[in-house]
Amino acid sequence: MSLSKFESMLKTNSIYFFDLVEFEEIIVHYLDTGKHSLAKKAVKLGLEQHPTSVDLKLLDVEILIFDNRLEKASQKLKRIQLLDPNNQEVYIQKATIFSKNGNHKEAIKNLKIAQTYSGDKVDIWSMMGMEYLYIDDFEKARLSFAKCIEVDFEDYSSLYNVVYCFDMEKNHEQAILFLNAYLNNNPYCEVAWHQLGRQYFVLKRFKEALTCFDYAVLIDETFIGGYLEKAKTYEQLCDFEEAVKNYMITLELDDPTAYVYLRIGECYQQLGKLDTAVEFYKKSVYEDPFLDKGWILLTEVYNSQEDYQKALYYISEALKIDENNVTYWRKYSEINIKLSSYEESIKGFEKCLELNDCAVEIYIALSDVLLFIGEFQDAIKVLFLAQKKYKHFAEIEYRLSGLFFLLKKESYALTHLINAMKIDYDYYLIFQELFPKVYSNIKVQKLLQNYKKAIE
Hints:
Elements: H1 2-12, H2 20-32, H3 36-49, H4 54-66, H5 70-83, H6 88-100, H7 104-116, H8 122-134, H9 138-151, H10 156-168, H11 172-185, H12 190-202, H13 206-219, H14 224-236, H15 240-253, H16 258-270, H17 274-287, H18 292-304, H19 308-321, H20 326-338, H21 342-354, H22 360-372, H23 376-389, H24 394-406, H25 410-423, H26 428-434, H27 436-439, H28 442-455
Helix pairs in contact: 2-3, 2-4, 3-4, 4-5, 4-6, 5-6, 6-7, 7-8, 8-9, 9-10, 10-11, 10-12, 11-12, 12-13, 12-14, 13-14, 14-15, 15-16, 16-17, 17-18, 18-19, 19-20, 20-21, 21-22, 22-23, 23-24, 24-25, 24-26
């Protein structure tokens, strides 16, 4: 009634009188529904009719804080504190301002003061818990949220936060003790069973985890989180058929997600049903085209089936999503080699180096492709770059030797061949494979034989 009367007043530009309680209800309603401009108007009119009201002044401060006008809010709070120094809301709002300014320790101090003036401390404990989280004091945060649960066993937000604190402390055994104690008092809480199962899962106690998830979905047959965790646990137990069944239940309960399609696909792949796996991988990328893992799994399936053209298509899609992923560029280059697209494979390996993937195998793979297409000088440049990072590597020295032989620079070639044999004589087999004509050279054969006799 007072709300419609207030809005009617705004439309007609009339002035109606509202008592203090009515104004508070109107302002809170607008704040709760996100209508801040109307809340501001109500505060302004309210203070004109009730200029001494501390509660309206505090609501005015709350709106200023929401608008991030923290300095003005702070100044008004100082004046309110002089009028009513024992008002808990003053210290709560001060704590909010300190928190927004990143001063979480001062926020906690003010919340502790607010507690001394408050009969209902649950909200303050919850706020303190969040402030402790901001400064990574997980023990104090956990204790604050635990106090909320002591008052209200169905405060699931605080329950999640307590478990989160245990997780951050990597104290899963204590989390199990806490959740079991909680379940003794509230045994039909699917959220607690779900969280308990997660703790067992982290500790790789999969059968115990499965029991907990079973209880969660027995209590609430529509609890999607329970079925997802059951499915993941069955995967760990290598029971992929049961995993698929539980993932399928989530599709019946809610809209499909790319993640679930992906997991189902991986289960079918584990079962050796590649065609079905591909079907679900394709559903996952259709559902979320930006899920690069879906494209990669399709790449791997077709790559394993030697269907390199399709593999190239899917790895290219993954690179559109994450063009800075060196693993994808490696795969891109390897597939292009299979397709004899050497220029593209060179592009991929060079991109890896550009992205600081400077593993020795990248340099070697790049030099081998350059060797294959006859770009001997470029191959040598790549190997010299590798040599700066990887000294005394036989695979580099043998390749340099072979390349210099091909360029008729025999003295350089022999020097690198001797260096290579000193590092790892047996690796000469790669020399034989990559440079068969050079290997059959009489000087090379004699040098290899003489060195072998010397080390024997």
